[in-house]
Amino acid sequence: MGMFYLILLLGFLLNAGVLVVGMAFYKSREKSVDFLKLLLVNVFVSVLALIYGLVGGTLSYVNEPYVVQTVGLMSFGMLAFCMVSLLLFVRQTRS
Questions:
Q1: Residue 79 in contact with residue 46, Cβ under 8 Å?
Q2: Which of 2, 53, 61, 64 is the most buried (most CB within 10 A)?
Q3: What is the pLDDT of residue 91?
Q4: What angle do CA 92, 15, 5 make, to 5 degrees?
Q5: pLDDT in tens, 43-66
Q6: Contact 70, 52 (CB under 8 A)
Q7: Residues 19-39: b if buried by 16+ CB within 10 A, e if exposed
Q8: What are the CA-CA distances from residue 86 to residues 3, 17, 19, 27, 82 (Å)?
Q9: What residue ranges of the chain have pLDDT lower than 70?
Q10: Which of 39, 34, 22 has the alpha carbon at shortest distance from 78?
């Protein structure tokens, strides 16, 4: 049961990495961070992982059942992190 939560945490941290890299990209261009675009990227990556986890994968070298299950579980952690991006976007629009 502990491995289940570890995989969810890994998905959460993966999307956190996507957000941090996106924020660093905006800061390197000296622009204000557009959290709506970063939220859309987080949701897109999460949905891709969820679809892969549900459908399985069509290429023979990535159709390993354990990989498919792991990515499927990670997608739920990734979707949970989208709430953080959503909160940052709401905070940005209110100010």
A1: yes
A2: 53
A3: 92
A4: 125
A5: 998 888 888 888 776 655 666 777
A6: no
A7: beebeeeeeeeeeebebeebb
A8: 27, 16, 11, 19, 6
A9: 1, 57-63
A10: 39
